[in-house]
Design goal:
single chain; 361 residues; OB fold (Dihydrolipoamide Acetyltransferase, E2P); six-stranded mixed β-sheet; 22 strands
Length: 361
């Protein structure tokens, strides 16, 4: 069930997770526009495709000081009933599946410093404890939620009044109620330019028909190369553990793994992509996928992004210079921030790549 899936991330050297039901999207930290006397631990706002998104720093509510923000930080956009906010996190990791029975409510000692204990719903005891965040509606008092909504409405109306000719163009300078302060004042000029460019890239009209066809991609790496996979086929990301080899199988079949009672076969697709089969090390992950009724675990080197939004027209054909006999496994190439990723055709990989053993994966 969807409510058992959680997006995991780090904040101030601790691991946290939140139900994917609340998660809309994830993107790298952009330049935020600070606002005067915002309250609610709001750092600032950003224009997200024509809608003002308030971004908060959870550190004060968790009992920690707010550190300097970094280019490697991300914003996770959360939606719960009428509340829509962004939170700053240090690093986004995997989507994992956790049953209710695996969530412990005995975590008083771990959250003694938490200013708002209602933020923590439980803890998942694993190789490293993961704190489960509650529904965002519980993070704020009723008055704070009203203040959040009023602030957004006030700023939106102020912008609309100043743009009767073209309301879709919303710039930081238009926010008349905002401070004249700099976001991330300790950042270098180059870092500030990157933050500003990220904010510009997020500034699309909410009425843009292209947004309706956005697809969500999981971005992973294999041998240092970036690849994208449609998240509709991805069930979760998890660690590699207790793999049992399968006799008389080709090299791309790694073995079976028990995933909470479900036996899945692990496969290494690097050979199919003409990549060297280097040693699989402990830091590698498993991307659990379901393709054409087949459930399997794909070995990946690193998970870069669990929810990256991409417009279909951004996917281009594989350049002629890189054509190979393995082109049938690729849907094309697309930009991923400052890099290029190759979009994998998982159905073709599984149905034509020799990954089915005795008709069972």
């Amino acid at each position: 069930m969807k409510e058992n899936f959680y997006l995991t991330f780090s904040l101030n050297n601790f691991l946290y997770s939140i139900s994917t039901v609340c998660v809309e999207e994830v993107f790298p930290l952009p330049e935020l526009t600070p606002i005067t006397q915002a309250g609610c631990d709001i750092v600032g706002v950003v224009n997200l495709r024509g809608d003002l998104l308030a971004v908060i720093d959870l550190n004060p509510r968790l009992g920690y000081q707010s550190p300097d923000y970094r280019l490697t930080d991300s914003i996770v956009v959360l939606k719960s009933q009428e509340l829509r906010i962004g939170i700053i996190v240090n690093e986004v990791y995997d989507i994992i599946q956790i049953s209710l029975q695996e969530i412990s409510s005995n975590f008083d000692n771990e959250v003694k410093t938490v200013k708002y204990p209602q933020i923590i719903a439980g803890v998942f005891i694993n190789t490293r404890d993961i704190f489960i965040l509650s529904n965002p509606d519980y993070w704020f008092e009723e008055l704070e939620i009203q203040q959040l909504m009023s602030m957004k409405n006030l700023l939106t109306n102020e912008i609309a009044d100043s743009h009767q000719v073209n309301k879709t163009q919303i710039n930081s300078s238009d926010l008349l109620l905002l401070k004249q302060s700099t976001f991330c004042p300790n950042a270098t000029p180059k870092e500030q330019e990157i933050l500003r460019q990220r904010a510009d890239n997020l500034r699309f009209s909410i009425d843009n028909p292209d947004l309706k066809s956005l697809i969500t991609i999981a971005v992973i790496s294999l041998n240092g190369n970036l690849f994208g996979v449609d998240v509709a086929m991805v069930r979760e990301f998890t660690e590699i553990y207790q793999v049992r080899p399968i006799p008389c199988c080709p090299v791309q079949i790694i073995g079976n793994m028990n995933l909470r009672g479900e036996i899945i076969t692990l496969v290494d697709i690097r050979g199919l992509l003409n990549l060297p089969l280097t040693t699989i090390i402990d830091s590698f992950k498993v991307m659990v996928v379901e393709v054409e009724g087949i459930v399997a675990g794909v070995i990946v080197e690193e998970v870069y992004d669990a929810m990256f939004l991409l417009k279909p027209q951004q996917i281009k054909v594989v350049p002629t210079a890189t054509h190979s006999i393995h082109d049938e496994y690729f849907q094309g190439v697309a930009p991923y921030h400052e890099a290029i990723m190759t979009i994998l055709d998982l159905p073709t990989i599984f149905l034509k790549g020799g990954l089915i053993v005795d008709e069972v994966i």
